[in-house]
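Following the same procedure, backbone shapes were mapped to integers, yielding the entry below.
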Amino acid sequence: MTRLLSLLILVLFCAVSHAQTWRKLAGTAAYVHRIKVFSAPDVLVACGDDAPPYNELQNSSMEFYSGLGFRTSTDDGQTWSEPKLSGYSVRDIVRLPNDPNTWIASVVRPFTNTGGILRSTDGGQTWSGVPENDLLRIEQFLSRPYDPPMILSAQVNTDAGFQVSLDSARSFSPPSLEPVQTRSIEISQADTSLVFMAGDGRGLPGVFRSRDNGRSWSKDSAGLDGKRILCVYPSRLLSNVVYCGTDSVAAGQSVGTGIFKSNDTGKSWFRLRGSEGKRVWRIIEHPLWGDVLIAAADSAGVLVSGNWGDGWERWVGGLTDTVVVRTVELVRTPLALREIQAYIGTYGDGVYKSTAIVTGVDATVPAATVTVWPNPSMETSTVTIPFATMANLHIVRLEGGLATTVPPSAVTARSTAYTIDCSGLAAGAYVVTVTDGTMSSSTVLIVQR
């Protein structure tokens, strides 16, 4: 009887533990809009205030009426420092890639809406006294490890929303005249020449892409008509796959319009199942398993996907019904076995951390994630698929009939590559397909002469 009771208690404990997906990390400001997970040295940073910006959901200039700076934690959020830069709303912090002791913060002073850049040379402990570039409203930083480092910025309350610095943020300038306000920019980890920018609608809407650090931009964005882009996120593993979170503003009201995906590097977009009606502020992909994603979905809480974003489900265990999730960041060390663990910043209830999340959405590889380069081709093309297999690639004429099969040329734990000699193929269109068990990828190859 005692053994049975102990087993029952253990089962109940496991069930409760699993249901309690999110746990609050007390000690931060209530309205957390930015979380940074720094390594070497390991520091967790929470930027937050006691009220959100005014007009944040409108197509107009944001105004700031609260400034509680940021807090840091060196024990994974169990305890937090006293506020630093209190009196400012700290919008983002970047560490220089070649000097982790140099921190640069974008700040706004409440009510006056002045601010700019502050810097620290001792790992965020002490800061410069007078902000530089006080007209800038930078919402996000990115850095490239050039010499000197290049700092990219996403800016609001301006029509020069993408600006670049080559002098450690002492001065910024727009590399092009694209009239865009943006809250979100990202560098593709699968193709680091690519930079994506989210046009949030105050200037030009849509998703922009650049291969020259913003000196020139391309924008097609078919399928995003009437949408404001709140965030953009290129896949870490597949250079052709990009996600974005959207809303629409009509009659002064913001309405969530879900997560959209592009399989052609941002030229065309389609909405993803399970995200309809959601306002999404941030999307992140598991660094090892590209089919696993997590998104900060405002009043809908947290969305997760296990099939390359093609289906989403809510994970809100441990969160109250009124929690608004504003941002999400992954823990420092990625989990194995397609599990994901993250921190979220909320509007009204501070910071939470999840237990390991395993989504119930089936993991399937969508056909459009296969890549071919170059395409069209005259001589040789390389086909890459996002799973490991020893299966042959089948090349079928578009009008029917198998043209040839090709064995793998390179196999890693996460992908397979095939080298196609196109010199023996007649000019025309071909369907290339790999099928291994339940996983299948296909695309079209064009051969020219």
Observations:
- The first helix runs from residue 2 to 19.
